[in-house]
Specification:
Blueprint: E1 40-48, E2 54-62, H1 70-87, E3 103-110, E4 116-124, E5 135-141, H2 146-160, H3 167-175, E6 185-192, E7 196-203, H4 215-221, H5 224-235, E8 239-244, H6 247-259, E9 269-271, E10 288-293, H7 297-302, E11 309-312, E12 317-320, H8 325-328, H9 331-346, H10 353-372, E13 379-381, E14 387-389, H11 391-396, H12 401-410, H13 414-425
Helix pairs in contact: 9-10
GO molecular function: guanyl-nucleotide exchange factor activity
InterPro entries: cDENN_dom, dDENN_dom, DENN_C, DENN_domain_containing_2, Tripartite_DENN, uDENN_dom
GO cellular component, one term: cytosol
Length: about 425
């Protein structure tokens, strides 16, 4: 069932299917090198309504789509209706201003078929005299690569200070360039009046599953101990609410928490920044991972909510918990992960963000490998080539009591079931056997 926007539902996030040929490789968004960088660039501005309040509206869209089939046209309209809401999720209480620090954040929309689109946003104040409202430049893409799109938005912002007209040729150039493979670079030629032709290099990180992630954002705000409580709750697919005032903090931290689950994918409601009008999402009885602005805290706490973990990212503390978070993960593995996270924390100034990403991810992937890495040996292959997972034997094979207790719960989650479903489909010869 889809919630929110009639089919383009940000609330109900079903994970996309893994393409064949990639056993167990899941990431929140799939893409292949060579496809378009983006689908649209839209500008969302605040427009005054007859009753005096302001509403976000799309004031510019590139490219304009002609000749769409009926179904595509409906989907496009749904998408374009949903975007303004997520570009200004903080409601309509805006006043014109002369000062505004530009901010970068992202949101995720899910289509009826479960495919995801990401909106990369830069909210900025247009240059010019007098008081103005901020506007949002939003790039809609199927590709998950936050660092790369932040760089593109830097270029858009630089051009916006000159004039809107200079943005168009740059985006056209980008649209005509193929998306690079991991580790590769694409060079975009770009002309700016007064400063001539520039070459802009856009490089994708080597490790594709980490390119939408900034683990440092999490480590800077939460102690390793709390990060493990959050991770434990996420592995059992509970309800998670994150609070912060800044949209960029919310979207960075939630993407980071979802990425801790790799190679599994969060398979439920996932809204990095919940628009004000969707705040009742927190009443859902099903699992969710959502970000809410701190100003709505009172409203959220008043809602009739099932058990949830509520995390304050500003103060770095947990406001509400179920109470058993400390006991969920097997103690020995939990301590190993704590040591690992503390080590990165102590060297925070030494590592680049890529190094932090790799080190943190490694600790969590290692946790899953230790607990469920033996899954492939428990898929029984039939003559027809289809596999069936032997769950009981798989759990029995775990000798440690505390590990077995955790795994028995973990195998019942959606993320594990989806992972195994893909594994049962993709019988691929091991490397070296052809």
């Amino acid at each position: 069932a889809s919630e929110g926007n009639d089919g383009v539902s940000a609330a109900e996030n079903t994970p996309p299917r893994v393409p064949q040929g990639m056993p167990g490789e899941r990431s929140s968004v799939f893409y292949s090198a060579g496809q378009f960088f983006f689908e649209y660039l839209v500008v969302v501005s605040l427009k005054k309504m007859p009753d005096g309040h302001y509403e976000p509206k799309i004031t510019y869209q590139f490219p304009k789509r002609e000749n769409l089939l009926k179904g595509q046209k409906e989907e496009e309209e749904r998408l374009l209706q949903a975007i303004p809401l997520f570009c200004f999720p903080d409601g309509n209480n805006w006043a014109p201003t002369t000062e505004f620090t530009s901010e970068t954040f992202s949101f995720v929309l899910t289509n009826v078929d479960g495919s995801r689109k990401i909106g990369y946003c830069r909210r900025l104040l247009p240059s010019g005299r007098g008081v103005q409202f901020p506007e949002v430049f939003c790039i809609i893409s199927c590709l998950g690569c936050f660092g790369l799109f932040s760089k593109i938005l830097d270029e858009v912002e630089k051009r916006r200070q000159i004039s809107m007209a200079v943005i168009y040729p740059f985006m056209q150039g980008l649209r005509e360039s193929p998306f690079p493979a991991p580790g590769k670079t694409v060079t975009i030629k770009s002309f700016i009046p007064e400063s001539g032709t520039e070459l802009i290099e856009l490089t994708r990180p080597v490790d594709a599953h980490l390119e939408h992630v900034e683990f440092q954002a999490l480590l800077q705000r939460l102690s390793p101990h709390l990060i493990l409580h959050i991770f434990a709750s996420a592995t059992l697919e509970r309800r998670l609410i994150f609070l912060a005032e800044e949209l960029s903090v919310l979207s960075q931290c939630i993407h980071a928490v979802a990425a801790l689950l790799y190679p599994f994918t969060w398979a439920h409601t996932y809204i990095p920044v919940v628009p004000e009008c969707l705040l009742d999402t927190v009443c859902c009885p099903t699992p969710f991972m959502v970000g809410i602005q701190m100003r709505h805290l009172e409203r959220v706490l008043e809602q009739p909510m099932e058990e949830a973990l509520i995390v304050d990212l500003c103060e770095g503390k947990i406001i509400r918990a179920v109470g058993d978070e400390e006991e969920i993960l097997p103690r020995k593995l939990q301590n190993e992960m704590l040591i690992s996270l503390n080590r990165h924390n102590n060297n925070n100034n030494v590592h680049t963000s890529e190094q932090v990403n790799a080190l943190v991810s490694e600790a969590f992937v290692h946790f899953f490998v230790r607990l469920v890495g033996h899954y492939a040996s428990y898929i029984k292959w039939g003559r027809s080539g289809s596999g069936s997972f032997q769950e009981r034997a798989f759990c029995k094979a775990i000798t440690s009591k505390s590990c077995r207790r955790f795994v028995k719960k973990f195998v019942k989650t959606n993320m594990f079931s989806l992972f195994i479903e893909e594994a049962e489909k993709s019988r691929i010869p091991q490397e070296g056997n052809g």
